[in-house]
Amino acid sequence: MNIAIVGTGYVGLVTGTCFAEMGSNVTCIDVDKSKIDRLKQGEIPIYEPGLQEMVLRNIADERLHFSTSLKEVISNVEIVFCAVGTPQKEDGSANLDYVLSVASEVGRLITKPILFATKSTVPVGTFRLIRKTIENELEKRGETIEFDLASNPEFLKEGDAIKDFMSPDRVVVGVETERARQLMTRLYRPFLINNFRVIFMDIASAEMTKHAANAMLATRISFMNDMANLCELVGADINAVRKGIGSDVRIGSKFLYAGCGYGGSCFPKDVRALSMTARAMGHPMQVLEAVDAVNEAQKHVLYRKLCKHLGSLADKRIAVLGIAFKPNTDDVREAPSLTLIDDVLTAGASVKAFDPIVKQTTRAIGYAEDMYDAVSDADAMVLVTEWKTFRMPDWQRIYKLMRNPLVIDGRNIYDAKELRELGFTYEGIG
Questions:
Q1: Domain for residue 262, yes or no?
Q2: Are 110 and 172 found together in one domain?
Q3: Distance CA 158, CA 312 (A)
Q4: What is the CATH number of the domain that holds 162?
């Protein structure tokens, strides 16, 4: 199949590369010429394990192409995927300007029937705006050209996106017509040859499914973080509680880990966007609004624990391990580490941070060469992102390097008993 994907951000680039890997002829479109020029050379703007090798392979096999012009390819493609960003507005709602701009361009350019499929995360009902936008452009041209719409939300985990795309547990597709259904079935059949599981539904339900899935996962995280804070007050152990409730088959163990809050480009934005959609319909989602509030408060928990042990942080030196919002990505959007850093700097302390991938942020802090450089002369070590390289450090070396052997474990990955026996003051979450 010949397809075009507009937007070469995280979703667009992974989507286009994986479709090419399975034999489709893919052109990824972006208005940023310098970005497209780099992509043509196999230079990718994001960190995602395995992606660069796949990009290079499919460029060499001439299945993956990059361009700044949708006009050059639209007459040859069957599907145009929209994978542009939907950034959060100040009020928490999703900004659809980029999505509707793509729809407008498609309306100006199409000369034959085409399927417009949305990969971008959009509020429910966006497909109606897309349809109207395309129809308006066709009306301006005095043309009557049939087109179909589909919603095909992505469920990619940063750091594991290739596996998620190539071996999905489900593919959600919202369609209105049989023609759209057949095209999407053809496109996805190679991915699910052994377990063909495309879940077709109406477009509004597909748009809602994306937000509902992220909202549910975010809810589990905030619930456990709230429970962890209560456990500390009553003397219970959140890790034991997690095992106890996770063994219930009705609940399961995934996304039940207490920590210092979630971040990234999906959960915070999608929870707020869904909340704003609900409010606009006169139906406030009280649970979701609480989920967001709990998460924002939880991002300050590490700072509170530092103050608990150190008192004033003025002139203290804090080692921060992990900057990315999760392991195996360079994404720092809404990362708990940045909240911690801001809190610590405001309190008059200095920060030296180490992350295996992220080497720079907009914060005025020191960046260490490795975790041992970060903890040298530190008054506290704070684990924020659970990269594998942090899991089994040389604790005796760290003890000698630190000015004050205080460890704040924001992801509960260390053995409290072991560290206390080594002379550390240790505190986790819950």
A1: yes
A2: yes
A3: 37
A4: 3.40.50.720
- 62 and 192 in one domain? yes
pLDDT in tens, 324-334: 999 999 999 99
Per the structure, the complete domain to which residue 160 belongs is given by 2-201
Q: Which two tokens stand for residue 406?
A: 């205080």
CB 269 within 8 A of CB 11: no
Q: Enumerate residues 6+ apart whose C-beta is below 8 A from 231.
A: 237, 238, 241, 430
Report how far apart, in Å, the C-alpha atoms of 180 and of each of 22, 105, 139, 149, 284 are. Answer: 20, 20, 22, 7, 34
The per-residue pLDDT for range 20-31, each reduced to its tens digit, is 999 999 999 999
- Whether 136 is in a domain gets the answer yes
Percentage of the chain beyond pLDDT 70 is: 100
Rounded distance between C-alpha atoms, residue 40 and residue 196, angstroms = 33
Choose, from 18, 82, 266, 307, the residue flagged as catalytic: 266
* Single pTM value for the model: 0.90
Contact criterion met (CB below 8 Å) for 347 and 362: no
Res 109: pLDDT = 96
Q: Which domain-ending residue is among 181, 201, 221?
A: 201
CATH code of 252's domain: 1.10.1040.10
266 is catalytic: yes
